[in-house]
Amino acid sequence: MRVVHVINSLETGGAQTLVEALCLVAESNHDVHVVVLLGRDTLSARVEAAAASVTYLNLRKDPISAGVGVVRLRRILRQLRPDVIHSHLLQADLIASLAKGRTALVSTVHTSGGHESGLGSALVTRVMRLVAHRYSALVACSPSAGRFAKTRLNRAPDATILNGTRLPEFDMPYVPEESSVVLSLARWHPMKDHANLFAAVSHMGASGPRLVCAGAGMSADNPEVVALTAQFPGIDIELRGPVEDVASLIQGARALVVASSHGEALPMAGIESLAHGVPVVTTDVGDCSLLAIDEAQLVPPRDPIALASALTEIFSEQAHAQLELRARARRRAEDLFDVTSAARTYYAIYEGIAR
Questions:
Q1: What is the pLDDT of residues 55-102, one digit of tens each?
Q2: Which of 219, 263, 265, 268 has the alpha carbon at shortest distance from 239?
Q3: Which of 11, 137, 210, 341 is the residue whose CA sits 20 to 30 A from 195?
């Protein structure tokens, strides 16, 4: 079976990581290709190594480019002749739905909503509501994404398949020596609520952790980030920008934090963290509650004091409690987030709708 994934970009993100994982676990009789609306980005090398081919449409970020994208994608699909097209993220969903011809089309919804305040996102969401019937199957990456599809796209999902990742080798849990790092893997975007995160770490005072922030836009050449960090001069923060391989960052952290205020469905960053046995402290948005091993690690959004308290508890635990927490984190990943299981379900859907 030949599958073509269509996605907006290959910047670091959950949908992009899922596409890479689905390419990596494809069976030998599956031929998997990727088409990217924009140009090369942080995860390009990884996805290029995993897929049979990666093609970049190099579109601009404007409404006119959508029409150009439909024409270019149709040309590529005629060359590849896929059995199934699988699109990810709303702009790619829209262009794929208009370019697909008679080929079966699957879409995965990766959001729980609340991001439509911007004019562009709101417009794409409205148009998607009109073309959602063109999908042979609509999949939600979590229950909250399914609710978004039903209410905002006017189409109930045909299946809910939790995001997953490849599980790295894991013999036994360990805590990095003298690790005082809290890791944030989140691009610069209002829904990620970095102000909430920075305020929480600031509230922890002089004994607070070192905060490492990685993601698109999280670098010193972003004046908005620099202006925000200036409001919290007491925190120890390292801006890493986009990072291709996050495994070493995760393994060196005491915890990963998700501080988002809205929009999240089931963040892949949290799933990858659990897979490495690193606990996740998260706000209670979308289905992020699945990432929290204990109730103490789940806090309300936009509440920096509650977030600071949860992080403080992680750092105050004794060594044996930390090891137990890490073992439980890994078990959660094994139970819920193994991409091999997710891939089997996706390929069963592909087989059922392929022409």
A1: 999 999 887 888 999 999 999 999 999 999 999 998 899 999 999 999
A2: 219
A3: 11
Q: Say which residue the tokens 């599980």 belong to.
A: 167
Place of tokens 């997710």: 342
- Tokens 């989140």: give the residue: 186
- CA distances to 1, 4, 155, 328, 347 from 83, rounded to whole Å, are 6, 8, 23, 40, 11
Burial bucket for residue 33 (CB in 10 Å: 0-12, 13-18, 19+) = buried
Q: What is the DSSP letter of 97?
A: H
Q: Tokens for 159, please give them.
A: 């299946």
Structure tokens at 158: 């045909």
pLDDT on residue 207 = 83
Task: Report whether pLDDT(135) > 60.
Answer: yes
Closest CA to 276 of 159, 352, 170: 170
Cross-sheet strand order for the sheet of 104-109: 53-56, 31-36, 2-7, 84-88, 104-109, 137-140, 159-160
104-109 and 137-140 beta bridge pairing: parallel
Length of the chain counted residue by residue: 355
Rg of the chain over Cα atoms, rounded to whole angstroms, equals 20
Tokens of 74: 């149709």
What is the token pair recorded at 305? 């004091």
**Token couple for 223:** 């004046």
The reported pTM is 0.91
137 C-beta neighbours (distance < 10 Å), count:
19
Instruction: Give residue for tokens 């290029």.
Output: 48
Q: Do residues 88 and 19 lie in contact, with contact meaning Cβ atoms separated by under 8 Å?
A: yes
- The DSSP symbol for 288 reads G
Q: What is the per-residue pLDDT for 210?
A: 95
Within its chain, how far is the Cα of 222 from the centroid? 22
